[in-house]
């Protein structure tokens, strides 16, 4: 059973070598479809003995990926983007998966993005390992169309495209076109909101997430992440009045999602600070939400951000206790976060000891 690495690229010289070095020993061939590079992308690909093909860009990622899949000569295909790289030892996991029979392999994708001047890591699971006769649909954020069962496989991919805003400007026009064609589809509003978040266009992100929130059925795999991101967008755009009903209405649905409880605590603090007289009585709920996030702990749920069930919640709860005057409890929470080597908590502990 042979595996092709199948990629579409354009001007990826900055990150392509890192990607190919992480995967070249796991695959039998590398298929690179170039959509118009003018840098050293193709030269780097040739260093890895890639089979390189040219494709005239049609503003359609699904079509480009299907063109690339059509060039594979192997039974299985692994799909990566150039700003991604494999970060774990997964050779055995891949071998075991492809010998269990036909299925779609969902792999862990760790997205880096900036929030509050810190790097955060968001988890998702994408269909990236599958029989080479499978095909994609969708012009952007394309999906593998197949009735085959989907199972998680222990492959971990790091992605920093959102962190460095490498493709945001390219994706937005395509998404706007797709939204024009599918105005009630919450998925595309959710995806364009993430693009706008990468550009710090918080009002635009809020508008699209609000639209998506009104049309989700909550059966979508991305619905919890959408709701959490909606609350962040409400805060970032200053539309605080709209968040309280979201927090109240989603507590049962998202009872086991630490990200929801974490962002609810953040939101309530913002709301209280905006009008202490009206909302001050909500202050105890901040502590409850952080404690609930810590009770749940870290999960591998779609869209979860690493730390919301551990070090980040400990730190924020420590800040809450410090601000409300309970220094002993604050130090305890900072100590918990310090065990994760969380720099903000280490700084707060140092400051408290010197004061």
TrEMBL record:
Gene3D superfamilies assigned to the protein according to its UniProt record, in alphabetical order: Spore Coat Polysaccharide Biosynthesis Protein SpsA, Chain A, Tetratricopeptide repeat domain
SUPFAM superfamilies tied to this protein: HCP-like, Nucleotide-diphospho-sugar transferases
Record's protein name: Glycosyltransferase involved in cell wall bisynthesis
Organism: Paenibacillus macquariensis
Domain Glycosyltransferase 2-like: 4-117
PANTHER family: GLYCOSYLTRANSFERASE (PTHR43630:SF2), POLY-BETA-1,6-N-ACETYL-D-GLUCOSAMINE SYNTHASE (PTHR43630)
Pfam families named among the record's database cross-references: Glycos_transf_2
InterPro entries cross-referenced by the UniProt entry: Glyco_trans_2-like (IPR001173), Nucleotide-diphossugar_trans (IPR029044), TPR-like_helical_dom_sf (IPR011990)
